[in-house]
Known about the structure:
Layout: H1 3-14, H2 17-30, E1 36-38, E2 44-50, E3 57-60, H3 65-68, E4 74-75, E5 79-83, E6 93-94, H4 95-100, H5 109-125, E7 132-140, E8 143-153, H6 162-173, E9 178-181, E10 189-192, H7 195-200, E11 204-206
Parallel strand pairs: 1-11, 5-6, 5-9
Antiparallel strand pairs: 2-8, 2-10, 3-9, 4-5, 7-8
Helix pairs in contact: 1-2, 1-5, 1-6, 5-6
Amino acid sequence: MKTKVLGFVLCSVLLLGVAGCNKENAGNDSKEEETTFNLNDNIEVYVVTLGGPDACGFSMFTTNLSDVFPEAEIKDGNRVSYWEGSDTVPGEIAEADLANNISNLVFDTEKEENAKNLLETIQRESNSYSGVREFSYSYDNHRFRYDYQYIRFKDSNKYHADSVSVGQSIEDAFADAIEFQGPCGSGDYTTILTEELCDEYNLSCERR
């Protein structure tokens, strides 16, 4: 497992410093997490799909969205509803309006660069991270899109994979971004860990 290596790389990219990195290390010191999984224990996992088609939306590090779109409703988590068509509902931003006003938006380019570096690192090293598969991202005209599938353990106090560190690092990097949410479904489901899932998600498994 490369959890400690991952934590070092991601913390270096994000410049999280003491607060981010030491929090993870402190957690690892306080409990022993299994990284080779006994399939005879019938370990319950969540198989999660994050992101997906363009209709699911994107993120932007704009700092003046409310000034340019005063009627847009920014919800908890810096989320705003987005629609590719023109038949929007109150509080929603249409693609045409966003495109027409892109020059009026102000962007935090330093946070954009940090996010790009992080996503590039994860994509380049994704095959070595346990619990992660099919990671990809795009960055175009200040818009970030990323999607991947990952394993999350129901008993997170006992079982651990690199997918936890990956997800937390992305969440930290995009904490100040505006998330434009479009309508899309989710492929998440709960199941028992199997040999097939171990192979697909680069997990070390055995039966004992």
